[in-house]
Design a protein that fits this description.
Blueprint (H helix, E strand, L loop, with lengths): L17 E2 L4 H27 L3 H25 L2 E4 L3 E6 L5 E6 L3 E7 L2 H5 L2 E8 L6 E7 H19 L3
Antiparallel strand pairs: 1-2, 2-3, 3-4, 5-6, 6-7
Helix pairs in contact: 1-2
Length: 166
């Protein structure tokens, strides 16, 4: 009786795109708000200390642009997705300027899980893939921590089997 060979794809192949957690919107909004507060505060300090009249207008402009940007955050987060395919991981993001990157399993050198303070509070993590080519470094943000750790372990094991054939 012939032995069954190990499955060629230990990671399930996706027919459709996997999305990041909807809670990731909070991470993005908080980051945008913190950046806006810092820039507006710096401009207002410049206005009061140095009497630069233009600093008030710049602060208002930054505030308006930030509000518009924050309004688009939910849509931008929904545009982030990834697919596990037979030979690579396909990542996409972007609304107006869309980016799609295929990261071959055999070329992955590092798969890293990182967590910022807001993401940690929400139970989310970022999964970063590094290859020899700097242009293909990909970060999948906003994954639930358990999913990110499980996916990291599976992709590392898969990358090892693919690299063995090189």
């Amino acid at each position: 009786m012939p032995e069954h060979a190990a499955p060629e794809h230990p990671v399930p192949i996706d027919e459709d795109w996997r999305r990041v957690s909807p809670k990731y919107v909070v991470v993005e909004v908080v980051g945008s708000l913190v950046g806006t507060v810092i820039f507006v505060a710096a401009l207002l300090v410049a206005y009061f200390w140095f009497d630069w009249w233009w600093a008030v207008w710049a602060a208002v402009a930054i505030g308006v642009v930030s509000i518009i940007t924050i309004a688009f955050e939910p849509r931008r987060v929904r545009s982030i997705g990834y697919r596990l395919r037979a030979d690579d991981l396909l990542f996409r993001r972007g609304i107006m300027y869309q980016r799609q990157v295929a990261v071959p399993y055999g070329r992955m050198q590092l798969v890293d899980v990182t967590r910022g303070p807001v993401a940690r509070a929400l139970g989310l993590a970022d999964l970063k893939f590094v290859t020899a080519a700097a242009a293909t470094a990909v970060t999948v943000p906003g994954l639930p921590l358990d999913d990110a750790e499980r996916l990291r372990d599976e992709l590392v094991a898969l990358a090892e089997t693919r690299r063995a054939g090189l």
